[in-house]
Write a structure and sequence with these properties.
heterodimer, A: about 290 residues, alpha/beta, Rossmann fold, two-stranded antiparallel ribbon, about 15% strand, B: about 325 residues, 7-stranded mixed β-sheet, 5-stranded mixed β-sheet, 12 helices, binds thiamine diphosphate, binds magnesium ion
């Protein structure tokens, strides 16, 4: 759809990292909040945002979640506690702290999960918010999607602290930290479950680092000249979209026919979403000025 | 003369400066191995090496601030921000450090720093990635703000900015990168603070800068069809501001229109209109005409986004409304 000019601007694919959104978000309660970055379609779909409306947003149409005004980097759905894709790297951390604070303030058992990339850990807000969250014991789950690259910069070219990020969280007083294989949806699910239990029982923030890889370029504008194809292929061999179904078949939990049925129902959903988006009109001119209050 | 793109002009300016002065070095996110988000620095890492073409972490406050420090120590850093929108993460370093240090130190220290950044919208990057802020920085004493509109100006002004002993915010409207123009084959400078008459005319003065000049030149072309002779004044820098060239033109034509592609309210266009009115009211046939971007964040959806960006027709209509020509 991007190459056909229906979706434009910056578009950041989540391909390769699906096990994280699916595994982690499956453990959340309806009143939990999610805050994420611009690579947000995976989280949105995992949280159950309407794929039709997500697609319409990507198309810039009126039936998009934000009436076409946010675009792919800025998906929101308050009913699902989905408080944004955010496109300023590191911009989402303070927002997450505030959302978590609201749960604490209201004595709710709700949690805010904030997803972020390895590159964003070099922003000041990451460090400031980890400290704030630990000091105030905020119910926040820091979820690092470590795909080894921030745009063209491999983590070791912009970070001297080594390949593991999660030990750093402990230095802020975040006691519950974990590292997990981000290509293994069950492992992500289990780690998230434990982290949420810790947070919900009042221990303050937790931190999970998932090791993963984005199979595509940073965005559609990226020619991917900075890394070896072999590195990508090694990760592609562990594509959770292949390995997980294979495991389920091996364990006789699903039959090949059932698997095929799921695949074709997903394909059908995509076709419906595209049709929905294509049929939705562009926003009327007045929309330029709605939600402007001063 | 050779015809090159705005992007190539900037790249040539960087190469010439790197060749001319060993104190010049570049830093920014993905300017090296990735070749730059907008490819301005393409190939420079290979040629000049990692000491002089430094990839930074995504830490705008840190590397802009480090640029200030290196500049204070006598180096000439040219720092690239991937977008002017991201300069906000470093705005404290820019406004409270870069702009203040020379004054507060009683002139003991200087900050020969250049901050290059793509600006502007129009390509559906949505609200947080389509902003310019040259307006904001232009209101800060202690900064210079340079806003080229052509390859010739981009190259000459970039060289002047790098040679300048003071901090320069160098705004590169991203829509201009692929535009073409002639540049001299030898090295040259364009002084900062000198406006340029991009087209001469007798009936009205159109004032703007950066990508606004593209719109104004097209508007002047259109006006010519109806017998209106428009003069286009390209400010080229907002601070220092060459008001003399503007006033001279306005007093010749007796009419003025100001185009500011950023938000209209409290923008640089307002400053210009006020100043022209204040200084030239005796010469003007009516109030200073104004065209500005709509006071809204930039929406993603293409038709809505286009609706908020000043178009040639807006300029023509505003002139008609104000002066009846
Ligand atoms: C403040 C700021 N600086 C730079 C950018 C440009 N940018 C967008 S994404 C990105 C890389 C982020 O990498 P990472 O945090 O690892 O997330 P990933 O894209 O790998 O998921 C950069 C440099 C930005 N959007 N905001
Ligand atoms: Mg990353």
């Amino acid at each position: 759809m991007y190459t056909r000019g229906q979706v434009r601007g910056f578009l950041h694919l989540y391909i390769g990292e699906e096990a994280i959104a699916v595994g982690a978000i499956s453990q959340l309660l309806p009143h939990d909040y999610i805050v994420t970055h611009y690579r947000d379609h995976g989280h949105a779909l995992a949280r159950g945002l309407d794929p039709n409306r997500v697609m319409a947003e990507l198309f810039g149409r009126i039936d998009g979640l934000s009436k076409g005004k946010g675009g792919s980097m800025h998906l929101f759905d308050t009913e699902k506690g989905f408080i944004g894709g955010h496109a300023i790297v590191g911009g989402q951390f303070p927002l997450a702290a505030g959302l978590a604070l609201s749960h604490q303030y209201r004595k709710s058992d709700g949690v805010c999960v904030v997803f972020f990339g390895d590159g964003s850990t070099n922003q000041g807000t990451y460090h400031e918010v980890m400290n704030l969250a630990a000091v105030w014991k905020l119910p926040i789950l820091f979820f690092l999607e470590n795909n080894l690259y921030g745009m063209g910069s491999r983590f070791d070219r912009v970070r001297a602290g080594g390949e593991d990020f999660y030990p750093g969280a402990a230095t802020y007083g975040i006691d519950h930290t974990a590292v997990v294989d981000g290509m293994d949806v069950m492992a992500v699910q289990e780690a998230t479950k434990l982290a949420l239990e810790s947070i919900r029982s009042g221990n303050g923030p937790a931190f999970i680092e998932a090791k993963t890889f984005r199979f595509q370029g940073h965005s559609m504008a990226d020619p991917v000249k900075y890394r070896d194809r072999l590195e990508t292929e090694a990760w592609e061999a562990r594509d959770p979209l292949n390995t997980f179904p294979r495991d389920l078949l091996d364990q006789n939990l699903f039959t090949e026919a059932e698997m095929e049925e799921i695949r074709s129902s997903v394909d059908a959903e995509v076709v419906v979403a595209i049709k929905f988006a294509e049929d939705s009109p562009f926003p009327p001119d007045e929309e330029l000025f709605t939600d402007i209050y001063a | 003369m050779t015809e090159i793109t705005f992007r190539q002009a900037l790249q040539r300016g960087l190469r010439e400066a790197l060749d001319a002065d060993p104190n010049v070095f570049l830093m920014g996110e993905d300017i090296g191995k990735y070749d730059g988000a907008y490819a301005v620095t393409q190939g420079l890492l290979e040629k000049y090496g990692p000491d002089r073409v430094r990839d930074t972490p995504i830490s705008e406050a840190a590397f802009v601030g480090a640029g200030v420090g290196a500049a204070v120590a006598g180096l000439r850093p040219v720092v690239e921000l991937m977008s002017m929108s991201f300069s906000l993460v470093a705005s404290d370093q820019i406004v409270n450090m870069a702009a203040k240090i020379r004054y507060m130190s009683g002139g003991q220290l200087k900050v020969p720093l250049v901050l290059r950044a793509p600006t502007g919208g129009g390509v559906q990057l949505a609200a947080t990635h389509s902003q310019s802020f040259e307006n904001w920085y232009a209101s800060v004493p202690g900064l210079k703000v340079v806003t080229p509109s052509t390859p010739y100006d981009a190259l000459g002004l970039l060289r002047s900015s790098i040679e300048d002993d003071n901090p320069v915010v160098f705004a590169e409207n991203a829509l201009l990168y692929a535009t073409r123009g002639d540049v001299p084959d030898g090295e040259y400078l364009v002084p900062i603070g000198v406006a340029d008459v991009k087209r001469t005319g007798t009936d009205i003065t159109l004032v703007g800068w950066a990508h606004g000049i593209v719109t104004l030149m097209a508007a002047a072309e259109k006006l010519a069809e109806t017998g209106v002779s428009a003069e286009v004044v390209d400010l080229r820098s907002l601070r220092p501001l060459d008001m003399e060239t503007v006033i001279e033109s306005v007093e010749k034509t007796g009419r003025a229109l100001v185009l500011d592609e950023n938000w209209r309210t409290a923008g640089f266009g307002a400053e210009l209109a006020a100043e022209i009115g204040y200084r030239s009211s005796d010469y003007l046939d009516g109030p200073v005409a104004r065209v500005g971007g709509t006071d809204t964040p930039s929406p993603y959806s293409r038709p809505l986004e286009q609706l908020g960006i000043p178009q040639v027709a807006w300029v023509i209509d505003e002139i008609e409304k104000t002066y009846g020509i």
